[in-house]
Request: fold
Amino acid sequence: MDKTQTFSIMIVGVGGQGSLLASRIIGDVFLAQGYDVKVSEVHGMSQRGGSVVTYVRFGENVASPVICEGEADIILSFEQLEAARWLPSLKPGGKIITATQRINPMPVIAGTAKYPENLIEKLKAQGASVIAVDAAALAERAGNIKAANVVLIGVLSKLFGINRDVWLSALKDNVPQKYIDVNIAAFELGEKAAQTAA
Reply:
């Protein structure tokens, strides 16, 4: 990658899905590669169930962590509806990596709205390049459904020519010791899923 270009990753999901952990791991990977990295805190309702977004930007000299509309190179989404909600932030030619998981927002839970159908197909129909992965099922296979965020980091890692040991080192630095094995397994399942998903 060209270090003179600033690259922007937007991480979106709902509260309780581990957006901040994901942004820290990704940020550490690119710091280790010698980039200037800016990571935002969580924006939105970070309690369980609310829409949240964090930003990771890296390059030679990054002034701000904020990603504006049409600036995201990658949207990493932990939930389908959040991928659709933030689609306007994706730049032309950008990529969406999304979990196929559906988490009903409050209007759906309250019965005043319906969860949209065929969202991933709709994203593709709007010209987005989408990698969709059943991250929750893979995380469960790894041993903990909460590691779905790390499954998606495993998918993301395949888009960059960075040695996997750098990703695993960042993972180990940010995850409590007792959860490292589960998270490594989740990361590896994400790597494999990236090779088959499109």
